Amino acid sequence: MAYKTFTKEDYTAILDLINDNDRVLYQDAIQEEYGHDELGGTESLPDVVVLAASTADVSKVMTYAYENNIPVTARGAGTGLVGACVPIEHGILIDISKMDQILELDEDNLTLTVQPGVLLMTIGDYTAEHDLFFPPDPGEKSATIAGNIATNAGGMRAVKYGVTRDFVRELEVVLPTGKVVTFGGKVVKNSSGLDLKDLIIGSEGILGIITKAVLKLLPAPKKVISLLVPFPTLRQAIDTVPEIVRSENVPIAIEFMEQDVILDAEEYLGKKFPDHSADAYLLLRFDGNTDEEVEKAYQPVADLCLKQGAVDVFISDTQEREDSIWKARSAFLEAIKGSTTDMDELDTVVPRSKVNEMVAYFPEVSKEQGIRIKSFGHAGDGNLHAYMLKDDLSEAEFQKRMTKTMELVYEKAHNLGGLVSGEHGIGYAKKRYLKETMDPVNLELMRGIKKTFDPKNILNPNKVFDV
């Protein structure tokens, strides 16, 4: 696609639209961070950055870009891992992170209306003050809500509560033309035509820019207790997961982790994990409204784990223990990054019945390709995170081994009935693997949807699939 080359005249025109020199960054004023996301690897700087303060800002800039055929990329906190917010074609980057206000708490309809730049941690703290909660729980709490909606992130509570898509009632979206539209509503049911709201959720910013969201809330459970369950081997831990899922007392979270990742987290945080004597662990979380209700839920699962070969069951029944476990879990990604010179990630998802087979494949491919892999993930919903580490490999050798490893892992996941991404998205970095594993008919339908929303292909081009 041939785009207009961004000029000084375009910069001046955008300045006139925004009418605030401090919110339009140009040339040397553009920070390096705008050229990459959290993981790096995909790098490209925009020609100009607009720090949007309102839906009107986004609409005006988008209208100008559409009329002049200039590519636009939206960015939140930049915590993504697949280059989805990287402006590959340069052009305009709209930073929505300053649109960070909570607009309304509707306790009658149990909804929270927020701007796109509100952080997950802010939503968590605010709803807790009102004895409510927003169930989606991705590990990166400094991510913006719009970023989570754009990738349909799920996080650790998806086993019981579902993913972000299940908790979005309404979206205000700026289309590539600059037109502002609203999809969905505060209603619980909706059979009124095609669900355009759900098209935006998970679309990674290629169809529209989210400028407001109405989120579904739930009453907060009064009691939360976790079980840390050590197993002699990872295989025994993973083999126990289907038994737990089939039980009458499914936890809100079922995570798996290995000893080496726990040790990384201990070093990164400077704090001891409650136990690191076993090779593998399951981390289970239960919630309810009374101690008796929660104990009634977790006790049969604890007994089941012991029956399946668990070494012990540690009950995290104090806030101190709870914090020590979950802070370590939330730090896994940063801890792994700190243990090596560079890395890239795999975010595959497989049917829950195939988790053990997928996890068992990681050490096989690691040995075969000569590249160190560390993994952890959401065993209860089949979403597995594996990280390929550069260590002392040369850049060329790392890229070669990593590329082959990705090919093999995604092929294995596909053969098991899985998909490329469970929650991090496709972005720029994983386009190739989506193309290799997805039905061409599905891809063609996606291209058609993109063309309908964005006939000029100016919004976040070169992401998810080639047009």
From TrEMBL:
Gene3D superfamilies: 3.30.465.10, 3.30.70.2190, 3.30.70.2740, Uridine Diphospho-n-acetylenolpyruvylglucosamine Reductase, domain 2, Vanillyl-alcohol Oxidase, Chain A, domain 4. Keywords: FAD, Flavoprotein, Oxidoreductase. Residues 42-220 form the FAD-binding PCMH-type domain. Its cofactor is FAD. It holds the Pfam family FAD_binding_4. InterPro entries: FAD-bd_oxidored_4_C, FAD-bd_PCMH, FAD-bd_PCMH-like_sf, FAD-bd_PCMH_sub1, FAD-bd_PCMH_sub2, FAD-linked_Oxase-like_C, FAD-linked_OxidoTrans_Type4, Oxid_FAD_bind_N. SUPFAM superfamilies: FAD-binding/transporter-associated domain-like (SSF56176), FAD-linked oxidases, C-terminal domain (SSF55103). GO terms for molecular function: FAD binding; oxidoreductase activity. This is Glycolate oxidase.
